[in-house]
Amino acid sequence: MTDRLRTLYRDLVLDHGRRPRHRATMAGADRVGEGHNPLCGDRVRVMLRLGPQGVVAAAQFTGEGCAISTASASVLTELVSGLTLEQAGALASRFEAALSGEPAPDLPEALEALTGVVAWPARVRCARLPWVALGQALSDESEVATSEP
């Protein structure tokens, strides 16, 4: 890992972990996905409100977890807002590829920074968890749930 990536990773996790963006329950969510990591206890719910043509008009998350999963969920909500469902899915796929060590072209800088977690393989699941929940929210089987994680 380069010094630049290490610094970006540290700064991003500290910033988003301490001051997560869009962390709140969303009334009127159109899509909801949940994830749980039984190894560390992290839980996350990703909620989407859709606008015209399937564009994500708003994204929020709730849950409890470590700084890495919180930062990843916070970044996710910032990045998917304004994207179509297809674009959000493609972004999630590129991030997954990067976490698996594959090339991930055109990855936003915040996600590039989060790929720094690969230096600690046990923590990759923490960064991946919100994106798994997003994948569930993007699926046709996504149902709006009413209970909190």
Notes on the protein architecture:
By secondary structure, the protein is α+β, with helices and mostly antiparallel strands. The chain has a single domain (3-138), classed as Sufe protein. Chain: A (Alpha-Beta Complex). It contains five helices and three strands; from the N terminus they run αβββαααα. The protein has helices at residues 3-18, 67-80, 85-99, 109-114, 124-138; strands spanning 31-37, 42-50, 56-64. Strands 1-2-3 form a three-stranded antiparallel β-sheet, with helices on one face. α2 packs parallel to α5. It is globular. Mean pLDDT is 88; it is low at 145-149.
Which keywords apply here?
149 residues; alpha+beta; Sufe protein. Chain: A; three-stranded antiparallel beta sheet; 5 helices; 17% strand
Topology of helices and strands:
Layout: H1 3-18, E1 31-37, E2 42-50, E3 56-64, H2 67-80, H3 85-99, H4 109-114, H5 124-138
C-alpha Rg, in Å?
14 Å
Widest sheet: strand ordering: 1-2-3
Number of DSSP-assigned strands: 3
Shape: globular
H/E order of the elements? HEEEHHHH
Give the integer mean of the pLDDT values. 88
CATH topology (fold) name: Sufe protein. Chain: A
Q: Unreliable runs, pLDDT <50, ≥5 residues? A: 145-149
Count of separate structural domains: 1
Largest sheet: 3 strands, antiparallel
Query: What's the architecture in CATH terms?
Result: Alpha-Beta Complex
What proportion of the residues is helical, as a percent range?
Answer: 40-55%
How far do the termini sit from each other? 34 Å
Count of helices?
5
Please identify the top-level CATH class. Answer: Alpha Beta
Structural class comes to: alpha+beta
What amount of the residues lies in strands?
Answer: 15-25%
